[in-house]
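Appendix B. Chain record.
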Amino acid sequence: MRERSAPRRRSVRWRFTRLYAGLFLASGAAMLLVVGLFAGGSTVAVPGPDTPVTGNVPTAAAQRIASLEHQLAQARSRQNEQLLLGSGVGLVVMGLLSLLLGRYAAGRVLRPLRAMTTATRRITADNLHERLAVPGPHDELRDLGDTIDELLARLESSFAAQRRFVADASHELRTPLATMRVAVDVTLAKPGPLPEQTRVLAGRVRTELDQVDQLLDGLLALARAEHDLPAPEAVALDALAADALARRALPVARVLDAAAASPVLGHRALLRRLVGNLVDNAVVHNEQDGWVGVTVRTAGREVELVVENGGTRIDPGQVAELTRPFRRGGPERTGSGGASGSGLGLAIVAAVTRAHGGRLELRAREEGGLRVLVALPRAGAGTGAHTGTEGPTA
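Structure tokens predicted for this chain:
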């Protein structure tokens, strides 16, 4: 199906230019009409040289006067025609000139708007402290710039309050969680036999505490990915992928293809979390005796990390929702180990990808499972082999 073409962009500057030129041409045409009316009204009918003359004027003198008046009338008529023709040519020339002058004037008027547009596009969630600071007199454009600055100030305050709340709440909740975990451990470590019901309940509480701790850790990672980024460095995604696969006792078949991949410029801790979350997500949301495929390759100016897995078929309409916090894509996406995760894994992946200026693509595989592609700008100019993972290997 052919994609619908984007609507053609209309320039306000050209609209102002056409407006200025149209007004000038309309006023010039009105001026020519007035000149034509006056010129036509000033022409009087005079007798020709053959017109009979009556009265006491001699015949020869009368004929001479009539001839001179006729010549004068013809001269006035030619003068009027030349005047109208010259005015028309002048109107055409001034019409063309008005287009240039109108474009220049519109550019001068719209210059503050272009500056505000450029500055607004440059401001993101990471530099909300910047302001437009529109110079000039206090006119409508200055009021618009000041209004945008006030909006940015409110957004900065809201974003800062949200990040502080997430970070502070996560830190503050760790203390009571640690206390409860120690109490459970002490209870289980007491000498003497414990009732089986108490032991099962304590184990269940300990499991829930671990999941809450993972949730808080995910919230901290999500807040860190959107604020207070450390200094970037050259990071090899293939090494992070190999380490993630080696550190995890995966109950599924694994495939790693990372031949001569270029490094990316980023933050090692966040990228390690990104790769680890993708591998964990591929393992948890899998099937019995499933597989996980990881590919790292250089594609032009980007380094692509592709993580695929087998599993049940996913509704393509739910794929876009998976990067939202606490979205797991439905009850059918249960893990092979019984853990459903905190619902922050792919949300953290999306935040880290945005923080590195990359792109994230999720696609439901027709055979079942999910294919996740993360493309990040590469740090060097090296080239990599373009390889892929088609499926599990025997």
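Further analysis of this model is presented in Appendix C.
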